[in-house]
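Before we proceed, please read the two lines closing this message. Let me know whether the structure tokens fit the sequence:

…
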Amino acid sequence: MNQYSLDIDSIPWHRIITTYGTAKEFPQYFKILWDMDNSTQVKNALSEKSVVYLIAFENISKVGEQYILEDVAGDVIELRNKQQNRDILSTLHYLPDNSYLKQQSLVCEFMYDNENSRIFAIPHTIVTDKTILKLLY
């Protein structure tokens, strides 16, 4: 090793802050990437990170041009389209009736908007007592 190289173990990864917490697990991610044989594995390892969650909601409503989800605790989060997919939010306007938008559950993907420093949700599926209504294909 020359004087300008660092050994991966000499970097204080636990002190480096990222969007997802500290970077303490980065060395194991690098090892996985170095050991990969094909580009598909690398692409999957480097894909965008998100959390998919089933959330009970009180109401989904449109405020101006934005759709807002209010959960049962009264907290709100903006619903958005996934950038590379079709307009998911417009499907909310064409639901059979408004009961799908009140006191149901929603499978959604939580993402972080770095530019605006905000968390938002991408709706996938509305779940009722009798129906599973898939919004995202």
